[in-house]
Amino acid sequence: MNAHDSEKVIGTLVQQGYDKVENEEDADLILYNTCSIRDKAEQKVFNRLNDYKRLHRQGKRFGVLGCVAQQEGEKIFERAPYVSLVSGSASYNKLPEMLVQLEAGNTRITGLDDRQTEETFETEFTARSNPHRGYITIIEGCDKFCAYCVVPYTRGKERSRTSTSVLAEARRMADQGYTEIQLLGQNVNSYRDQEGKRSFAELLAAVGEIPGIRRVRFTTSHPRDFTQDIVQAIDAVPSLCDHVHLPVQSGSSRVLHLMQREYTREWYLERIAWIKAARRPISMTTDIIVGFPGETPEDFEQTIDMLADVQYDGVFAFKYSPRPNTPAVTMADSIPEEEKSQRLQILLDRQRELQRVNYAKHVGEEVEVMVEGYNSARGQVNGRTSQNKTLNFTTRSTILPAIGSYLKVKVTQSFPNSLVGEAMGL
Length: 426
Ligand code: 5AD
Ligand code: SF4
Prior knowledge:
Elements: H1 2-15, E1 29-34, H2 39-57, E2 61-66, H3 67-72, H4 75-79, E3 83-87, H5 95-103, E4 109-111, E5 133-137, E6 139-140, H6 151-154, E7 159-160, H7 163-176, E8 180-184, H8 200-208, E9 215-219, H9 228-236, E10 243-245, H10 253-258, H11 265-276, E11 283-290, H12 297-310, E12 314-319, H13 337-360, E13 366-375, E14 380-385, E15 390-394, E16 406-414, E17 418-423
Parallel strand pairs: 1-2, 2-3, 3-4, 5-8, 8-9, 10-11, 11-12, 15-17
Antiparallel strand pairs: 6-7, 13-14, 13-16, 14-15, 16-17
The chain binds 5'-deoxyadenosine and iron/sulfur cluster.
Catalytic activity: N(6)-dimethylallyladenosine(37) in tRNA + (sulfur carrier)-SH + AH2 + 2 S-adenosyl-L-methionine = 2-methylsulfanyl-N(6)-dimethylallyladenosine(37) in tRNA + (sulfur carrier)-H + 5'-deoxyadenosine + L-methionine + A + S-adenosyl-L-homocysteine + 2 H(+)
Subcellular location: Cytoplasm
EC number: 2.8.4.3
């Protein structure tokens, strides 16, 4: 989400006549996009800002964008006085005006819209960094208020784009040669077309039917709002990828309640059953938080059981990190850091074993990959499957397949996180 915000900011500013440079030394203005989802990400920001002191002496100006900017607001000017601009994502529409103020010599410019804004940040000038695969934001902000999460406070309230505008952007991308589109939102399942024309599943299908688009992905889903018609759309439209990322956060209904996730373990597993009943095998991945305040060893055990119940192909697991303003920050953080680390390790080890077995099931299959890059040291081409798995492969031809091209590969070997294969017919 942040990477795509940066692409939109860059495109908008280039359109205004600014030039993008490759390194900080060549820049007059440095805009630093930030994340505050966990404490570690936030600490990184302040460490990095410290480095900018030196560059400031060379006359450069600085702006801080993103969730740390929104969260800390004007406090950033106190902590890092060489910063002249602070803007949250809900104010990016106003960046061109803010830069005019900056050029006029103003050194304390803020764009801190909080939850007030109704606007979405749409621009025709997104500077996408990859010419084959690109993101499109369909919904911004979040109204879910999970007890641990800072996003509803930093990215503002939920606001969807019209499906007409999303489809126009997708068609423009197809015309430019993009073949893969990833629809983005904090919770894509609560997408509400402003014009009332299309549900999320209908929008997904419509993007998948655009001539030239071969792969469509979407992230992130919320189990509370995930509907069966999404699975039906994947069944009906071959370009919709065989992959659903459905964050569970915890396998214990008690902890889910404390987290204010608004679903139970059983509710979640019912959605997983829909996905497993699809006509083609759909790969599933998830996010998990360990050590949420009050998580007992029994609760954690239920999360571990969830791994085998679902058979995920990938898990992003995090230690609970207390975040400012969130309800969970006032709950007694009863799990010591050491215990959190242990639980995380147990979970990652268990998941690795499951993936070792599940990835091995692909050996012998013939799958289509999109070529992403080359590893010349290993003589391999890096590809990605529709299930979003990495497949590194060799070819017999001396001419390497182009990045962004699609080929059939036979899987010959597997690891817990990747597959190995040989290109077919090359
Ligand atoms: N602590 C740890 N992990 C968090 N996430 C969100 N907020 C926190 C937090 N305070 C995780 C969730 C979410 C993912 C993007 O980050 O698992 O799905
Ligand atoms: Fe955060 Fe919950 Fe919204 Fe996801 S759905 S962004 S975890 S508040």
